[in-house]
Specification:
The structure is a homodimer of 447-residue chains. Chain A folds into 2 domains: 11-136 and 312-347 and 384-433, nicotinate phosphoribosyltransferase, CATH 3.20.140.10; 196-297, TIM Barrel (Alpha-Beta Barrel). In chain A, 36% of the residues lie in helices and 19% in strands. Chain A has 16 helices and 19 strands. Chain A has helices spanning 11-23, 51-59, 65-73, 79-86, 116-120, 123-147, 162-174, 183-189, 199-204, 208-219, 232-243, 257-270, 286-291, 304-307, 374-377, 401-415, and strands at residues 29-36, 46-47, 93-97, 102-103, 110-115, 152-154, 179-180, 224-226, 249-252, 277-280, 299-302, 317-325, 331-333, 348-355, 358-366, 383-384, 386-391, 394-395, 435-439. In chain A, the strands form 4 sheets. In chain A, strands 13-12-1-5-3-17-18 form a 7-stranded antiparallel beta sheet. In chain A, α2 runs antiparallel to α6 (123-147), α10 crosses α11 (232-243) and α11 runs parallel beside α12 (257-270). The radius of gyration of chain A is 25 Å and the shape is elongated. In chain A, 57% of the residues are buried. Chains A and B meet through α1, α3, α6, α7 and α8 of A and α1, α3, α6, α7 and α8 of B. Chains A, B: It comes from Microbacterium lushaniae.
């Protein structure tokens, strides 16, 4: 299970490496930055996810015999570059937002520092992971906020590529979901799994009653019965008749949910099943969940909308060279000037300023280092957003695996408490916080 | 690289299996069908993709020690079910549309026949693969049609999960793209790879001229230079000065492309570089490509829009039980009756009827078998759409691997020639062909 991740790479990264090894620029130290020019879907905040996965994939970013043979046979790089890749280890630094952290346009989500050679080849992998997972988490956080205290399960694996489905379950959990249907996500990331039966279960049997009876025998009275295969009213009646008033729950997967949920609640209560929970699962998104806030629903299952980022399937982050050394070792901030895609040169330090515990801005200091940041110091309640993830090639193992997921979820749930109330609205709008760029005075003109 | 695919599975499939093994229904023979209730994005046709990947994943659908330990430790199934899963092999039949085939609402894209036990556990994996890959292929085919004879490269890996990116490159290639930037897709599926340099290449160097000179030394005059890092006009002038009029190509990644392409073409011609090609790559989708049809563009690179299905990131196909045997071995067509998600029971055979070589309908015969189909026989030019993919557990190896991809691409390019002209429009509309359901007379009332 330690397949190489090294070919999750766009060809141009290796052709640039090839040319840079020839002309000597490969060893120039560089700073690349990952940021989003805007938030996906004109939302009010984004959520960083994927960091822990990325760190593990970075461990496996090795060019073995199979990878090298392909690059040689296809004449993608020359012999010197093959030699370089055979010994490739990332020995630089990754500094970034904690997984689960909120982000805004221009937030320096990840900073990659190393030689041009070792850093440029990571572009595609870094962006694939962060763009996908952050898109899911950014959508999921809104659903989680809309659901309030009601449990929310992710069950969209069938509407996502089979591996992305696992990553989506992970991102949704970090952003506040409480469980997933995906067993691989349960095993890999320690996420609670859920699920009982599909319509096929009822159709397999000679009657709905047979199906319910069998499910209860196997899973106990506390299970959840899917009651809408034929007629919902009959389904509920049969469910309670078979299970008794101690039935754990019923699931509704079709119809106009506010109406149906109210009818089912009334029917359950009239049958004495006052403790039986109602789960709804039909094409929900954050807006449908919000519309059900006043309905007698006990939990939600969300599929398509969460795994596809609810209209924004990618976070649209980019990976840009923002600073490099020249031949004399001096740092130079660099940026492209294209009219519609300009970027901002220089290394950045980021802080969330707060007043009375409520976030007020994303403060980004263009600076050579992370000390002497007068602007941040002027905000006594500012919180530094970046942490070291990889130091001289040494990966922070605490951010990986199930422990990393649990930490990211806890961090997310904590920091979203800082959001101002206007950030919680679901409508399209400007970001909830302004991103304020300042130059650290004492290093102005440098990076 | 033969990791098990068995946990790419929603928990409820295993809880249903568990209960079915207890009550004896696990051994009932069943027919499940994969179909889409509608086409993604109100398009005029869909493209089936993922079949070859699915067959390989089916080979690897095995419950090994790691998978079984997880299921036991988490108490997801009981000991008898663990025993069943330890010996799991799919021994049934998969019959389906060829990869690359077109589909319409209700097309029986894949039919899975086997015992309930062996078939139900495949639901999530089957849908994950077909929904993702078909969404990409359905979007990609429109881009390919809009591009006409101009080459079209997929370069969206950074905007998709790292594994889905490989599948997306594959699906786009099947639907008419000519190359990908993704090296893993090149290695795994034999797709041509492309790419030369990013903006970071120019920014790494002390001047744009240095960067161009170095790239040409490494890659030759026939390379493509990215000319929009600073000022495009200066970039083009520098490119031709450095490379000479034999420069292979320039790439433009920003700006209003019709205007910029015309200006760059005029400039190149005035400099004598009349053979230098122009590649454009900035946020293209099928509409932007169509809008550039009259512009002097030689090739396109498409990223985000193709890997995210251009607004429809999942094909929305479902996996439904449509027929099963009863205890006496008689077949019964089954379907759920939910008002908004009703399905149609019975096994289906599918044909594309044609007149003068132009497709006229998707004919779906609800039938027990694939012979004696009077309705199809009434259309002498009808083409049978289903082929055996797995026969009694034996997988059609020809549909797998790079050879399967090449065959799927050839099939797609051939069958889309049958489409009526109205199918080629990009606007939202009804499907280009009606789906006509009929019951095979001699088997009416049966499945």
């Amino acid at each position: 299970m330690t397949a190489s991740s090294a070919l999750h790479t766009d060809r141009y990264e290796l052709t640039m490496l090839d040319a840079a090894l020839r002309d000597g620029t490969a060893q120039r130290r560089c700073v690349f930055e990952v940021f989003g020019r805007r938030l996906p879907g004109a939302r009010r905040f984004g959520v960083v996810a994927g960091t822990g996965r990325l760190l593990t994939l970075l461990r496996d970013f090795r060019f073995g015999d199979d990878e090298l043979r392909f690059l040689r046979d296809e004449k993608i790089v020359d012999a010197d570059t093959l030699d370089y890749l055979a010994g490739y280890r990332f020995t630089g630094n990754l500094t970034g937002y904690r997984e689960g952290e909120l982000y805004f346009p221009g937030s320096p989500i990840l900073t990659v520092e190393g030689t041009f050679a070792e850093a440029v080849v990571l572009e595609t992998l870094v962006l694939s992971v962060l763009n996908h997972d952050s898109a899911i988490a950014s959508a999921a956080a809104r659903m989680s906020l809309a659901a309030g205290d009601r449990p929310l399960a992710e069950m969209g694996s069938r509407r996502a590529g089979e591996d992305s489905a696992i990553a989506a379950a992970r991102a949704a959990y970090i952003a506040g979901f409480s469980a997933t249907s995906n067993l691989a996500a349960g095993r890999r990331w320690g996420i609670p799994t859920m699920g009982t039966a599909a319509h096929a279960w009822t159709l397999l049997h000679d009657s709905e009653e047979d199906a319910f009876r069998s499910q209860i025998e196997a899973l106990g009275t506390d299970t959840t019965l899917l009651v809408d295969t034929f007629d919902i009213r009959t389904g509920v009646e049969t469910a309670v008749r078979v299970a008794g008033t101690g039935l754990g729950g019923v699931r509704i997967d079709s119809g106009d949910l506010p109406t149906v949920a109210a009818d089912v609640r009334a029917q359950l209560d009239s049958l004495g099943a006052t403790g039986t929970r109602i789960t709804v699962t039909s094409d929900l998104d954050e807006f449908a969940i919000a519309a059900l806030a006043a309905s007698p629903v006990d939990s939600y299952g969300v599929g398509t909308s969460v795994v596809t980022g609810s209209g924004s399937p990618t976070a649209g982050m980019v990976f840009k060279l923002v600073a490099r050394q020249d031949d004399a070792g001096a740092w130079i901030g660099v940026a492209k000037a294209s009219t519609d895609k300009a970027s901002r040169g220089g290394r950045k330090a980021a802080f969330r300023t707060r007043e009375d515990g409520v976030a007020t801005s994303e403060l980004v200091v263009v600076s050579d280092g992370y000390e002497e940041l007068d602007d941040a110091a002027a905000h006594p309640d500012a919180r530094a957003l970046q942490v070291p993830l990889v130091v001289r090639g040494d990966i922070d193992a605490a951010a990986e695996g199930p422990a990393g997921v649990a930490a990211a979820r806890a961090h997310h749930l904590r920091v979203r408490e800082e959001l101002p109330v206007r950030a919680l609205a679901l409508s399209r709008s400007d970001p909830a916080l302004p991103t304020v760029f300042t130059e650290a005075a004492e290093v102005a003109g440098q990076v």
